[in-house]
Amino acid sequence: MKKITKVAIILAAISLVSCSSLEKNHHHKETTELVILHANDTHGRILEGSSDGMGYGKIDSIVEDYESKYKNVLYLDAGDTLHGTVMASLDKGESMVKVLNEAGVDAMVPGNHDFNYGIERLKVLTKEMKFPVLAANVVKKGIFGDKLIFDDYVIKDIDGYKVGIFGISTPETLFKTSPKNIEGVKFLDPVKTSEKMVKKLKAKKVDYIIALVHLGLDESTLPENRSDNLAKLVPGIDLVIDGHSHTELKNGLSVNNNYVVQTGEYDKNFGKVIVTLNPDGTEKEDISLISKEYAKANYKDDEDMVKLVKEIQTEQGKITSELVGKTDIKLVGDREVVRTGESNLADYLTDAILWRTKADIALTNGGGIRSSINAGEIKKGDVIQVLPFGNYVIVKELTGEDVLKALENGVSGYPAQLGGFAQVAGLKYTFDPSKPIGSRIVDVTMSTGEKLDLKKTYKVATNDFIAAGGDLYVMFKGKKTVANYEGLDEILSDYIKAGFKAKDGLDGRVNIVK
Question: Which pLDDT band holds residue 468 (cuts at 50, 70, 90)?
């Protein structure tokens, strides 16, 4: 009996040593590869476009190709996906959800523009998704404390390795979607939330941690809300998959033995990270981008995706094909133009707002103009492509001093492209970019020829995004509302139908001191 007991004790000791060794080696024996495919800021670009990306037909084919070659593939989306084109916005994101489901997305973080249909609509869309939407720092304010709106994390089993993915949305959503879209929603600190998530996932014996974030690398973003800062300050994260700033990182950005990856914008690239997971706890990442050019040369559009897109187009074609009017010239709405200066399309749009509202001043943000209109027939779809956000027009009473502050805010980012750049009608202004931010406006003259009177009250027509303080136009908040009007796209359509022609060239409404 004593001999048997000794044997039992020895076996038990071996078992404990083995368990300890297994624990140390994360319960794994073999090295394995994980392919992480990722996208960000596609802004509803379902179709391949001449100045946009490869389209989801190619994306679906790439995903299927990698799934046929590798055992372990994850496809992650870093947000700003559900909104931004006619196809995406006509049915308030439903078509985009169908496309993402078909493409086989494994997890997504909501970007600021994914809130554009409102938080309640986003919740409905989330239920239609065949994958989790992750946002550990987005909570609903309540009497009994904050409550998570989305899932905070998901854990995937990759050949016995635990891969944890958590999501973080940008706190800039507070002013980079219309505030009415996120009433009662709170965005917690990205760094503190990430530290909690790492602790939570480590407690669950996760081997590899991915932060799926919509934070970005913009210089105008507060350091605490940037992805590089997150990678630097939060130990334990192995990879940061990012969006928001439209930054093309060909081989990732190295930060403290960590990497931030981002593809740029509008599916012009599709991201790829091949992670080698080892039993000794070390990992290796091979980071690259699959370009639109490479995709076109090597992949055909997936047949199932083509079929789905045709179904969506047939359904939506009834709305978008309606003829609105025509133009003899190109109406310029290119991003780099409308975010840094005057454009004939911006002039035409703000004129339309004044025509409809009879206000003293019209002011809209350059970032709200998302496309140009080419010479020729103008269809409803073209107008929605320019103005896809569903914003409506509000007239508020502002003092001349408020108007001056608004114009200062609009030029604060120059020469960088700023979504809040002030496009106007009813006045013209001159600014000097060499002067300090907040003191750049050197002249404001009303269309009547009078100088802006700082003490006078003006009726200012704008969109609901700015009226609620979006793009840091805080001077509009709380001001008396005179009237509400229909959507920007409807007003512009009516203006075109009424036969008003756009100017070929500029009006001199925005002047820059050289």
Answer: confident
Angstrom CA distances, 164 to 25, 80, 212, 216, 236, stand at: 17, 22, 10, 21, 11
Give the chain's domains with CATH numbers: 26-313 (3.60.21.10), 321-512 (3.90.780.10)
| Concatenated DSSP letters of 22-35 | HHHTTT--S-EEEE
For the stretch 363-395, pLDDT in tens is: 999 999 999 999 999 999 999 999 988 788 999
Measure the N-to-C terminal CA separation of the chain; round to a whole number of Å.
98
Per residue in 64-121, pLDDT tens? 999 999 999 999 999 999 988 878 888 889 999 999 999 999 999 999 999 988 999 9
Cα separation, 48 vs 34, in Å, equals 28
Instruction: List Cα–Cα distances, 34 to 205, 252, 445, in angstroms.
Output: 18, 17, 61
Instruction: Please give the C-alpha separations between residue 349 and each of 40, 111, 346, 355, in angstroms, as whole numbers.
Output: 29, 27, 5, 10
Mean pLDDT of 232-258: 94
CA–CA dist 213, 193 (Å, integer): 12
Cβ atoms of residues 508 and 333 within 8 Å: no
Taking only the tens place, the pLDDT of each residue in 389-415 is 878 899 999 999 999 999 999 999 999
CA gap 468, 475 in Å, rounded: 9
Q: How far apart are CA 476 and CA 330, in angstroms?
A: 32
Q: Contact 486/392 with Cβ under 8 angstroms?
A: yes
Judging by DSSP bridges, how do beta strands 258-261 and 253-255 pair with one another? antiparallel
DSSP state of 481: E
Q: What are phi and psi of 344, to 5 degrees?
A: -70, -30
Tell me how far apart the alpha carbons of residues 399 and 475 are, in angstroms, rounded to a whole number: 10
